[in-house]
Specification:
alpha+beta, Alpha-Beta Plaits, 6-stranded antiparallel β-sheet, 11 helices
Length: 274
């Protein structure tokens, strides 16, 4: 069966995808939601909600403008709408974002990826959608330098990540063995199960097929999206984590930035002190 030999359970590295800072104005970490919990304690969740909605709406508009405005005929738009719904974006906001694309009044956005290093050499990928490349590049470079980081050339850290499809399910979707079998049948590559839930990875080009197969077996997922999955991680102590959180928060406060991913790893002891 596809991918069977590569599947493994419980391989939770503590990397951070700040896409979902978008999600919880913060970042998710593979195998658990520690980063989200930190952000919640910091009170950022509510404060970031409107910013989150606008970024998700922008993704919907761009996806609809690039292809068919019908999510059933446009895989990228379908994923964007699904992610927005999973973050409780109101239906009218989603519909307005699609209409904006079809109405011809949507801005033209360029999708750009920036790569650099954060505190202690942590690799950072910044994905942006912008109508002004010069403005965004200047802001991102300035944010890195002001927060102990360094913006690099394209490709400077990208080799430390793989582009993957990621499908997440809550812990109550089933036990690790159930999820493993469903993932194997769906053609996934990897499963990480913990008490906080299940994360299933697949080839980026297979995300639509794998997610549909999983949902027919397990029901609707919590999240389905493309991610940068680290192949190598950088261990951080408490001070390093605090500096990294400051950098990621600053990057995400930029309206042009859609998501931030880093490859940090931190011990439970460090995470509990944040």
């Amino acid at each position: 069966m596809p991918g069977q030999g590569r599947l493994k359970a419980g391989a939770g590295k503590g990397y951070m995808s700040a896409n979902q800072s978008l999600q919880q104005q913060g970042c998710t970490m593979a195998g658990h939601s520690k980063w989200a919990n930190i952000q919640h304690r910091k009170g950022r969740q509510d404060a970031a909600r409107s910013k989150l909605f606008s970024k998700l709406a922008k993704e919907i508009t761009v996806a609809a403008k690039m292809g068919d405005p019908d999510p059933d005929k446009n895989p990228r738009l379908r994923l964007a709408v699904k992610e927005a719904k999973s973050q409780s974006v109101p239906k009218d906001v989603i519909e307005r974002a699609i209409k904006k694309a079809t109405g011809g009044d949507a801005e033209n956005y360029d999708e750009i990826r920036y790569e650099g290093y954060g505190p202690n050499g942590v690799a950072v990928i910044v994905e942006a959608m912008t109508d002004n490349k010069n403005r965004t590049a200047s802001n991102v470079r300035s944010t890195f330098s002001k927060n102990g980081g360094n913006l690099g050339e394209t490709g400077s850290v990208g080799f430390m990540f793989e582009r993957k499809g990621e499908v997440t399910y809550p812990a109550d979707a089933g036990d690790a063995d159930t999820l493993m079998m469903a993932a194997i049948e769906a053609g996934a590559e990897d499963v990480e199960s913990s008490e906080d839930g299940h994360i299933i990875y697949c080839a980026d080009s297979d995300l639509n097929d794998v997610s549909n197969a999983l949902e027919s077996e397990l029901g609707e997922s919590e999240s389905t999206k493309l991610v940068w999955k680290p192949t190598t991680t950088t261990e951080l102590d408490l001070e390093g984590m605090q500096k990294l959180m400051k950098l990621v928060d600053a990057l995400e406060d930029d309206d042009d930035v859609q998501r931030v991913t880093t490859n940090f790893e931190a011990s439970d002891e460090v995470m509990e002190q944040l």
